[in-house]
Amino acid sequence: MADHPAVEVSDLNVSYGSTPVLVDVGLTVPAGAGVCVTGENGIGKSTLLRCVSSLQRPDSGVIRVFGGEPGDRPDFWRAVATTVEPPTWYPGLTAHEHAELVCRAHGQDPGEAGIDEALERFGLAGHADAIPPSLSSGQKQRLTLALVLLRPSALLILDEPEQRLDPEGRAMVAGMLADYLAGGGSLLLASHDDKFAVAAGAEIVSMDML
Amino acid sequence: MTVVELRPVRRWIRRTQSAHRDRGETATTAYVVVFSILVLAAMAQETLAAVFRPLVPDLTGSGALAWAAVCAGLLFATLRRLGPVTVSRPAAYFLLTAPVSRRRLLSPTLTVATFGAALAGAAAALGILGHAASTGSIVLVATGAVVGVLLAVAAATAQARPRASRIADAVGRVAIAAGLAVLVAEEAGWTPPTPGGWPPAVVVVPLTGLLALVAAAGFLLAVRDLARTPNDEILDSAKTAGTLADSVYGVEPSFLADMLERRYWAHRRLRSTRLSRRLPPLTAQDLLLARRRVPRLLWAAAATTLPLLLSGAPPWLLAGTLLIGTMLVARTTTAAVKTDATNPVLLRLLGLTSRRALWQRLWVPAALGTIWATVALGLLQVTGALPPGPWWPLGLALGPIGAVAGLRAARAGLVRNDLLPVETPMGSVPTGPVLHAFAGLDLLLLALPTVVALATAAPATVSLLILQLGLGYLGVHAYLTFTTSPDRVELAAR
């Protein structure tokens, strides 16, 4: 896995109808490094992330994640964790139980995975017994981030993770992403907040330059 | 504060809406609806006759009273589920917040609900009278209609007083449970006390008149108190009515089912608990969900006696009820499969293969289905409603079959309305809703040996048991193997 870059994109083309969104886009995220793509709304950041996550098929181009083609395979989704998609929630399960289920599915001991600490750090300790649909949009965003960061992964793909977070929350999430990179993980994110990206330890790349 | 007159506003809305319709469209719609009802009634003439006027009346006095309690409980529960005081979703947005008379705004739906409840009450009374062995006064049909009005008034009162509504709902549930208990006990051989025959007309007529006066007064009081109905109750019922309309118009039952599921959990206060470590994670999750649905499990336990009510019915009906009952009980915990099949985002987060996920999701539904089918068959066997032989072990096969049928139905997702309709001599039949309706039910064909044995009144033999167990387990294994993959996460139906 470490022999290959985390993400390699070349000659990527995507259009919606007759409107081209991505034209001959190329991007490399080295293994163990972080890259933050920036750019104005509608420039194609989310589309790029969706293509890398295998959630959208490009018109043409080559995408490799750790040397392999991204797809709906279990090994891909055990290596890649993403918040590109809007989350759904299991009925009748609390926020804490969602976190425990994610840990158990990845073979982690829920007691040692630090679920309580993660919920505390994301300001969700008081909502551990709530069912996620009853949370506010910001709290849901934080819970999604907590789940993604709790489970083991080799690559995080995050779409504007700073959205709906207050300044303290942004600083905390940026710190956690920096820790993730320091632990050997790779990071691809889209953001409007350069300060956040820098604090997360990600190299900023403008979509115009891709 | 100035109160705006509602009538001109409604008139303007109606005029503006009708300006966007084609000329005569309303008349055409009314014609199609009335014509369809008449055609369906003519087609289902024999079934309707069997429901309302069977050739051989089969109800004792206690049975008739029990059916009356069940029908009243069900009618009250339906009225409470729908409101009964409600408004359309646009009216909830634009008019509920406007300075108009709330009584005038809300009274039309209460009137419609009361009229509908009166019709339903009269139909229930007519059906019960038709089934009763001794002849009762036809005036009791009017009594049924008046009771329907009283139930509508009670439901509207409960809606305006959420605290009292819990007691009213509990009374409704007790009426259903007690009525069914009497019916089941009668089928099991219990001889009920004789109520002393139908009351004579000289009692029924004044009593119905008195009840009608009470109902009329209650209705007027309910209309007077309409303004006290809390906004959240009206908004809830507006959403229910709107979603029901969406489900019917879009032929998409999942809209309503999803809303009811969301609403159920939104009203629950949960405490986080540890998932069982001895079970695979998704099985542990399903077990936790089952533990949180105790009322539903209690109803399911009580429902094991319902097939007894069909011991005199055609055997195919008994077999169908057993299979569909097993499937419905198995579906107690399949909501998570539905979530994953509709949107696999959580499965991707869990990183499990579709095969592993579905195997883990099978165990709790299979256990619930097996227990239910085994107990239901055991009760039928003990009461002598089935031919000789050990029937209850067949529950070991029917449970897993009901479970995979439930899983398949949960994986079906939304109705596909993009499929080509099939042209028949009766008109065109939309393919998507039909396929969706049969998703899951088709797998119940795996229980064919049991169905044939029940339909032909054949005794249960060891060879039948071995054949059914073998076919059931092979079918379950084949379904889980061929519709999942160790290389794929997505769980949507294949």
Number of helices of chain A: 7
Topology, number of strands of chain A = 8
* N-to-C SSE string of chain B, H for helix and E for strand: HHHHHHHHHHHHHHHHHHEEHHH
* Sheet with most strands of chain A: 5 strands, parallel
Low-pLDDT parts of chain B are none
Arithmetic mean pLDDT of chain B: 89
What's the number of extended β-strand segments of chain B?
A: 2
Give the domain tally of chain B.
Answer: 3
- Structural shape of chain B: globular
Question: Can you put this structure into words, describing what you see?
Answer:
The complex is a heterodimer of chains A (210) and B (494). With 210 residues, chain A is of the alpha/beta class. Chain A has a single domain, classed as Rossmann fold (3-Layer(aba) Sandwich). Chain A has helices spanning 45-52, 74-79, 95-105, 115-121, 137-150, 167-182, 194-200, and strands spanning 7-16, 19-29, 34-38, 60-65, 80-82, 155-159, 186-190, 203-206. In chain A, a hairpin with a 2-residue loop joins strand 1 (7-16) and strand 2 (19-29). In chain A, helix 3 (95-105) runs parallel beside helix 5 and helix 6 runs parallel beside helix 7. Chain A is globular and about 45 Å long. Chain B is mainly alpha-helical and 494 residues long. Chain B has 3 domains: 1-43, no CATH class; 51-263, no CATH class; 281-482, no CATH class. Chain B contains 21 helices and 2 strands. Chain B has a two-stranded antiparallel ribbon with strand order 1-2. The longest helix of chain B has 30 residues, at 102-131. Chain B is globular, with a radius of gyration of 25 Å. The termini of chain B are far apart. The mean pLDDT of chain B is 89.
